[in-house]
Design brief:
This protein is mostly helical. The protein has 2 domains: 89 residues; 114 residues, no CATH class. The chain has 14 helices and no strands.
Length: 245
Amino acid sequence: MMILLALLVVLSQPQQVSSEAIVNNLIFAQSIEQKEPKLAFTIRNKAVRSAFDISTGQRTEALNKALLAELVRTTAQMKFGRRQFQGESEGEYHLTLISAVADWKNPLIIPALVDCLGTGGTAMHTLANFGESAFIQVHTVATKSSEFNVLQGALLTLDLMIEKSTINQYHRTQLEELAWLRLSKSSGGVGPLSAAARLAVSTGNPLLRARVVELSNNPQKLDEIGLRDKTEQRLFQNIANDALK
């Protein structure tokens, strides 16, 4: 009975919901997660979407921290896959959470967004804007990750950092070394290799630019580093040539 009443309260809330009410709903959803996962998801989804009705500057610190904690929880669960609730997948909810957390623009969100690399542009652009504060964590992912989408997201984020001029010369040198490494072997297919090509060109290093030209003009060189699929080779050539313009 209490759960049904709670659901009615949540679904009947007005458009503008207070920060405190959203936090309480997230806490309540957590408390019923085990027994009522479907209802918990409905409450969470409503609560997070209500956060967008509050301007970023008006959100309380408690709300921002609650959204961050929810993102960390959901990211961890996403690694195991989740079924759909109420016609909306956990993946869509995850993207909504990323956008809500990214609005905070507090360095506290950096680790959580690094864990979201590979999910799209919001995490990448937000991390790139943090520049030096996020560089080491993103660089570590770009150096060590072997997951196709995560690696590509990390490399593109580093490329954005150069574009936004948010990193120092020492770190730019580290990026040159990373770009050369990633252009020496196709790790993860055409996506990460193409992202590495963009990064290489953005560094302004003439040797790296020459390496990208060499790969884009010579399919045999792509064969040698492990990119042997002809369709992927043509895709790489198109992306590399676009970066070289």
